[in-house]
């Protein structure tokens, strides 16, 4: 078993989890900061935290998608994940200063959901490709 076989499902699951973290961060953190005014929560509202999540989402998405596409050659999955990443990065780059707070939140949730859908498709398609390859080798 090669390293790519191991990395692809981890990358998909990581990207899905990080996309969910973006949504939680975007929707729940402001409420938590109001309810639990603590200096430990302030680090999560820092711009560096946003950038860190985006970089991690991009790296895990790129890794899982590159390995997955080599297996299944489904360009539609590339479109799903790429569209989600573009929306998520647009929300982060344009921010609430240009878009407004609600538009930023909507774009973040939409981008994260599209990324998650794309990675679920990538994961399932790779599992199917692996089963077919295993069946054919027997």
From TrEMBL:
Keywords: Membrane, Transmembrane, Transmembrane helix. The keyword ATP-binding does not apply. GO terms for molecular function: mercury ion transmembrane transporter activity. Pfam families: MerC. It comes from the Bacteria. The chain crosses the membrane at residues 15-36, 48-69, 76-96, 102-120. GO terms for cellular component: membrane. Coiled coil: none annotated. This is MerC domain-containing protein. It comes from Aliikangiella marina. The lineage of its organism: Bacteria, Pseudomonadati, Pseudomonadota, Gammaproteobacteria, Oceanospirillales.
